[in-house]
Write a structure and sequence with these properties.
It contains seven helices and eleven strands. The protein starts with a strand and ends in a 10-residue tail after the last strand. It has 237 residues and is α/β, with parallel strands linked by helices. The longest helix has 14 residues, at 18-31. The strands form two sheets. The chain has an eight-stranded mixed beta sheet, covered by helices on one side. Strands 5-9-8 form a three-stranded antiparallel beta sheet, covered by helices on one side. A hairpin with a 2-residue loop joins strand 1 and strand 2. Helix 1 packs across helix 2. It binds 2-phosphoglycolic acid (PGA). 2-phosphoglycolic acid is lined by residues 41, 43-45, 128-130. Residues 41, 43-45, 128-130 line the site of 2-phosphoglycolic acid (PGA).
């Protein structure tokens, strides 16, 4: 397969162009909305996007409401939290993140979700894909009506973050598939060879709770931005 190709709603680019391509797609998504409500991911994948945003001195449109799509449950300050991630990668950008150290995570994520709903729900959800096909912390077994909630992190998710966390958190707070799939537009990011198999399973395989990202197949406004390594097992058209 060539390094650069596309099929409907999917753009595959050389790895060095991943951040630029993701930024272009996000800009396009934001351009369609007034005072956009945006869900933003953490992890290795979006770093290239956020670096590009910084390089371009990008400022979210006035009146934007920005929300993290998930956070770990952890009672102490920790560099692995999503709050710490955003402080490092998008410093000064006002992104609301569920409080990782909230004494009552169920109440915290419920209140966070109410704030998303009060803002009108997500216009744009930017998401990554986990090694087990999770979207945010919607682990296998999640369904299209899974709400905002505290979730038990699956073993592959804990393995995925082992480089940043020792020991790893056992639980996270997440927007549900219900809230994410209701986003007017979804941008799915995937990079690196380690995502090739799960991306193909999610986009070209059966739609099933075993692979929560497979529910994205049914979304009417999904754009997938991936690099050629992550795209290597997808059917080209
Ligand atoms: P990653 O995580 O970008 O670190 O691979 C993605 C995810 O788990 O959603």
């Amino acid at each position: 397969m060539p390094d650069r190709w596309s099929r409907e709603g999917l753009l595959a680019v050389p790895p060095e162009e991943f951040g630029v391509a993701a930024f272009a797609v996000l800009l396009h998504a934001l351009a369609r909305v007034d005072r956009p409500v945006v869900g933003l991911p953490t992890g290795r994948t979006p770093v290239a996007l956020y670096e590009e945003m910084q390089r371009e001195s990008f400022v979210f449109p006035e009146g934007s409401r920005l929300f993290a799509i998930d956070e770990y449950c952890w009672r102490e300050p920790h560099p692995g939290t999503n709050a710490a991630f955003f402080a490092r990668h998008l410093p000064g950008v006002p992104i609301r993140v569920p409080r990782h150290d909230a004494p009552h995570p169920d109440a915290e994520i419920a209140e966070f979700c109410r704030a998303v709903a009060d803002a009108g729900g997500l216009d744009v959800a930017v998401v990554g894909i986990g090694a087990d096909g999770h979207i945010a912390f919607n682990e296998p077994g999640s369904t299209t009506d899974s709400p905002c909630r505290v979730t038990l992190l699956a073993e592959p998710t804990r393995a995925q973050i082992a480089g940043d966390w020792q020991p790893q958190p056992t639980h996270g707070m997440t927007l549900g598939l219900a809230e994410l799939l209701r986003a007017r537009r979804i941008v799915l990011l995937a990079s690196g060879e380690s995502k090739a198999a799960i991306l193909a399973t999610a986009l070209d395989g059966p739609v099933t709770p075993d692979v929560p990202a497979s529910f994205l197949q049914g979304h009417p406004a999904l754009t997938v931005v991936c690099d050629s390594a992550a795209a290597s097992q997808l059917r080209p058209c």
